[in-house]
Amino acid sequence: MAIDYTKISRHMSKLLRHDPGTLKMDKAGWVDSYELCSHLHIGIDTLEHLVETNDKKRFVFNEDKSMIRASQGHSITTIDLELKEEIPPKHLYHGTKDEFLKSIFKEGLLKQNRQHVHLSDNIGTAMNVANRRNGI
C-alpha cells in the first residue's frame, strides 16, 4: 500500500499549526518527533521525507531530529517561534484570489485568524498559494 504523503502532511499541518490535540507542545511549538510518528502511525523515515520534500518548508526538526514543529502559519496564538527581525527583500508577493483584491485594497492585508500575513519572495510561490486557497 502506497503512503499518501499529502494526506499525512495535511494532518501534520493541522496538528502542528492549529490543534495539537493530545500531543504535548511546548511554547515554541515543538512536539516530540516520535510521539508525532506514533500519533500518525508512520515511521521516522516517513516523517523525515515529509520535512525534506515539503515545497513550502512548513516543518522543521531541531538539530537531532528529536523534536519537530511547523515553521509558519500557526493559528495557535500562544506559540512563539522566536523569529528574528530581518530586512525584507525589495519585493514581496501575497498569494490571493482575484475575488479578494477589492477587499485587500480597501482594508489592507489582514492576518485573519493566524499570527502573521504570509508573503513570498517570488511570484511562483505566491501563485501556488493563491491557487490552493479555497476562500476560507
Biggest β-sheet: strands ordered side by side in the sheet: 1-3-2
Helix content: 25-40%
Average the pLDDT over all residues and give the rounded result: 89
| Major sheet description | 3 strands, antiparallel
Oligomeric state of the chains present here: single chain
State the order of secondary-structure elements, H for helix, E for strand: HEHHEEHH
What value does the Rg take, in angstroms? Answer: 16 Å
Point out poorly predicted stretches: none
- Mass-distribution shape: globular
How does the helix and strand content classify structurally? Answer: mainly alpha
> Approximately how much beta-strand content do the residues carry?
5-15%
| Structure summary, number of beta strands | 3
Count of separate DSSP helical elements: 5
Give a structural overview.
10% of the residues are buried. The chain is mainly alpha-helical and 136 residues long. The protein has 5 helices and 3 strands; from the N terminus they run H-E-H-H-E-E-H-H. The model has no long low-confidence stretch (mean pLDDT 89).
Summarize this, please?
This protein has 136 residues and is mostly helical.
Keyword list:
mainly alpha, three-stranded antiparallel β-sheet, 5 helices, 7% strand
Note the topology.
Blueprint lengths: L4 H14 L12 E2 H8 L3 H10 L5 E3 L5 E4 L30 H7 L15 H10 L4
